[in-house]
What we know:
By secondary structure, this protein is mainly alpha-helical.
Amino acid sequence: MAESKDVIEARENSHNREYFWNIVEKFPNLIEWADEKIRDDKEIIIKAVSVDGGALEFASDNLKDDKDVLLTATNQAGWTCCYASDRLKADKDVLLTACKNDGQVLYFASKELRDDKDVVLTAVSNKPIIVKYASLRLRSDKDVAITAISRGKEKVTEYFDEKLMNDSDIKKILEENK
Length: 178
């Protein structure tokens, strides 16, 4: 399969900062073809991920551990949290930003953040079925259950403590959703 003209041009300019500064605004994923120095250039990477958070995949490991870069990327596309360093997968600000855009990212959260009520509520508000990745403690929390059940079209009750499912408020929501 032949490479596109844009990829060929990007490869030919792999060391040219000015080229990538200008091109990432229109074609952010061409950063894949930049050399290491450019993929470690915070200004260029922030510019790229603000257009397409998925460009974070091609950033240097150093910038995948930069909170400003991650907040920009996850604000544009929450799922890009999967590229974050372990340190930033444990950062509440990063995970809250990501969960607002894509609740699925709770899957990538640290153990501690899977037990953080704010993070879990934000995630299940966006994607109720993701409650299955919340801590056992929060799967016994009435607020989390009400949020997930009232927003969910999927069957989420199986992930909650059985005693919680007998709560009168929760039973009422379940009846209303039938």
